[in-house]
Write a structure and sequence with these properties.
146 residues; 5-stranded mixed beta sheet; 5 strands; single chain
Length: 146
């Protein structure tokens, strides 16, 4: 995991923990409305708290076992934290290679566990990488690594 991704998860955890007391109060308020068997507000609040607690536990587990990767000493070689420009049949795209839990293609963050992400590791500008997709094998050319 990148240091930036680690810090983002820590910040999310702080925010989620801060929201929890209000959700507990919401459950208490809904519980005071009477019959719980038909109290939608109560069941909805319980479900929301359960999802929040699940997310908190998932983040805590990720942070506990996270291995924060320092910037590579080898310049120009694709690794976690590298920004890579690739060219394929669809044109050029820029991605930052990140850890498995950080991937977000909408933000240009490519997981090292993805087919293209794993294929890019240890390659330099000018290399051609081959990777498997559900539609079959594809190739991409590494344009630059920074």
């Amino acid at each position: 995991m990148t240091a930036l991704g680690f810090e983002a998860l820590k910040a999310e955890l702080v925010e989620l923990r801060a929201r929890r007391p209000a959700m507990v109060e919401e459950i208490a308020a809904a519980r005071s409305q009477g019959d719980l068997s038909e109290n939608f507000a109560y069941h909805d609040a319980r479900q929301n708290l359960g999802m929040l607690d699940g997310r908190i536990q998932a983040i805590e587990a990720t942070l506990t076992r996270a291995d924060v990767v320092q910037e590579s000493a080898v310049k120009g070689v694709a690794r976690i934290g590298s920004t890579v420009v690739v060219r394929d049949e669809f044109g050029e795209s820029t991605y930052q290679i990140v850890g498995p839990s950080e991937g977000n293609m909408a933000r240009g963050l490519m997981s090292i566990a993805s087919p293209l992400g794993s294929a890019l590791v240890d390659h330099r500008a000018g290399d051609i990488v081959t990777f498997k997709t559900p539609g079959g094998e594809r190739q991409a050319t590494v344009v630059s690594v920074s």
